[in-house]
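Late entry, written up from scratch paper. The run itself happened at the end of the previous shift, but nothing got recorded in the book at the time, so transcribing now.
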Amino acid sequence: MKIIDEAASLTRWGLNHALPRVGIQAGARRGDLQARLIMATSTGSDSQAGGGLPLDLFEEVRASGALHKSAFAYVTATHPVVKEVLGSPDVHAGVDFGTGGLLGPVRRWADSSTPIGPLTPPSLLSVEPPEHTRYRKLVTRVFSVKAVRGLQDRTQDIADQLLDDLASSDDETVDLVERYCALLPVTVIAEILGVPHDQRDKVLEFGEGAAPSLDLGLPLGRFRAVERSLRAFERWLDDHIAAVRRDPGDDLLSQLVLAQDDDGVELTDLELKATAGLVLAAGFETTVNLLGNGIALLHEHPEQLELLQEKPDLWSRAVDEGLRSDPPVLLTGRSIVNDTVLGGREVPRGSVVTTLLAGANRDPDVFADPQRFDVSRENADQHVSFSSQLVWTVEGPRDRRDPRGHSMSHVSPKAAFGQWIEDVQASAQLHPGVEHLESTLEHLRRSAVTESVDRQFAVSRLGDLAQEWPLGAVEILEYVLRDARWPELETLLREVRSGAEDFRHRDLARQVLEVYDEDWPAGEIYRRYR
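Output as recorded:
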């Protein structure tokens, strides 16, 4: 059995890392733009000033067109196209290598023994409806907005204590990544998972060991070390989940263990392990990078730090500017699941698109003097460092102005109006909490007042929403029209009202109010239907 497991592991490495890397290296030697980008972002070659980012290659990609076709995939560094890709219903997260062709049977055999990871079933990132719907409903009932908001004070306490420890240290120099950037997220994650204090070093070890699991082209030794870490974490979770079942606590994992759907069905141990693994994978390395990059930027630009000390109200912009200038994730791959048009170009099903998040964040058509780090930049919050697709994080919705996360991502009204509507539409269909409604309503109101969206497009998207969720459309329209007078919206409101007199969403209202605080501003919308 050990020999078979080793053979399967070696096969996974060969198919998912060795062969792609050989192809990429060959493509880079031929001058293929995307191959050069992948090599630059993985090895540091071809990098220029700007936090080690391959800025010259970003410019080459933009100069080659809105959506460049390389030998391996489509690639874009153009801000509007990146947002289009990330928000398209024809695009799914991750890159599907497929199980067809001559190597299909071999890949299926090798993948059957893959350790649980952030992109392996039953991760929320890898399963599709209807299973995804059932699974996510249970997870988001526990990882609700209210629950995540409850972590904020504790997170602040942990951050303060770590900084106090550094201030009282006798060491002349300290490794901030080791002593602060890594300890902050791992401590919060440990509390979410109910990890005993004497085992929290293990969680840090697992997080560091499994961090490269999403990287491409790993050397064999590194790949094996990652798989060992993932398997060790899985074995530890087996024991931990069993202990939680015997003696649940107040932590979120304990609540998840006890959660049941409407039919009284609980999450399986495999689903619980996948969720815990996703919390660790999604919350650890990206937060370490976010904090570390931000600290480095302020160290390299002391005049910006002085400005923040003089004007602390700029910290919100500073967080966004740090994410824009040096994001924790440089690029992300997406699979095309339906024939579509992106960036004005036809893209067939089965294609792969690489979105250069770091490149889009430096698009000169969106950000003036994009290579400059400026904590007072007014539109820094238009960065795409957290992406903008319809993906529900287990930690709850993220506020792009605050990496602690507690509300919907703050994005450009004109560029994202359709995305807000799709968020609400998906919420109405898939999730009883409709988590993003409060922020959605506020952004719709603001965009209507400032007339910063295309009215025809806005009316079209609200019309689509009305077909799926008429009562929600009525309330959104009424909310927006409190401060803006759009004849088109007023007409649509009259049309929708005539077909929205039934109260079939009464159960939805009841469930929403169970999730949110009574003082939730948008709660009034639902109390009418309770």
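Confidence is low (pLDDT under 50) at residues 43-51, 388-443, 449-453, 500-523.
(Scratch paper discarded after transcription.)
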